[in-house]
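Hi R.,

Here's the chain you asked about this morning:
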Amino acid sequence: MPIITNINDLKRLHKRRAPKMFFDYAESGSWTEQTFRENTTDFDQIRLRQRVAVDMTDRTTASTMLGEEVAMPVALAPVGLTGMQSADGEIKAARAAEAFGVPFTLSTMSICSIEDVRENTKAPFWFQLYVMRDEEFVDNIIARAKNAGVSALVITVDLQILGQRHKDLKNGLTAPPKLTPATLLDLSTKWAWGLEMLGTHRKTFRNIVGHAKSVENMSSLHSWTAEQFDPALNWDTIAKLRNKWGGKIIIKGILDAEDAKAAVNVGADAIVVSNHGGRQLDGAISSIRALPSIVRAVEGQTEIWLDSGIRSGQDVLKALAMGAKGTMIGRAYIYGLGAMGQKGVTTALDVIRKELDTTMALCGRRDVNTLDRDILLVPEGFEGKWERQ
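And here is the predicted structure, written out as tokens:
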């Protein structure tokens, strides 16, 4: 077993062990992948202030997100097809999050259903909703989430239409994978993955198949999903969804200060500064670069979290010090899941917490809730000076 000391170690194992189309699904952005790359490289521009001769005993990374106690301010973000990275992947990730003490978010486009995760975990989890044209389906899935005791609804607002992701198109991404000559050749080198998949009956989008009208098999699923993302989604629709849900809502996909204000106006309990991991609008700014203007615009009216680009505990620390109350990780835990299943997710969380704790101490802080911009060295003009007409 290789020694894992950072998230990149898990990424290398994930690439070796998962089928190419599913690794590429996780490790890709849209178009030229500029935004995908800058989500991580922009973190590298921010430096840290080392402080010495400071009492570093009794440190804590514990905090809260939406009033829920967390071992560190990091939640597992919703990721589609997680159950294709490792058999029953959503269940494994949810169990790892539960044991670690951080929130797990299930995607609408998950392989394991809401009910699958509920039956195999004890702690409440969050559910992410893609708004579809089929209003009956949306109403039913909200009701299913309520019945499962889901504690917060995450409404994704940046995927009204699908960004063009070249790798997914070239790989012919499907769940389960179509058995083409190229796919069969790749799967012939992924025996461990294949044997695990043979042991589960969860191999397609179980939140949709059997729940959406006329979706009973893979053929009907593909035609349904191709036309279902609702391009008419607007703030009035989101307000109606909030009323239907009746509980805490998190609005994910905010990258502009004006949109952040609109999210507050519809009653968001938290907003997630995110560009969908660089998978939607290529050429958009990175999440960490967008964060400060959104923090200023919202002025403490709701919790602000950051998603997209986090690959280390230092990234988490930088986001918190720049004004975020919490963070969400996607690829970082998916690498672990694809590498070593549930144990890999736990390993990813351990790596991030250790990096967060050590860096916090070396910056002279003992409590993650006291992090602020004073511990950072932010380049002049980091947010960018953009000409606006």
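One quick note: The mean pLDDT is 95.

Cheers,
M.
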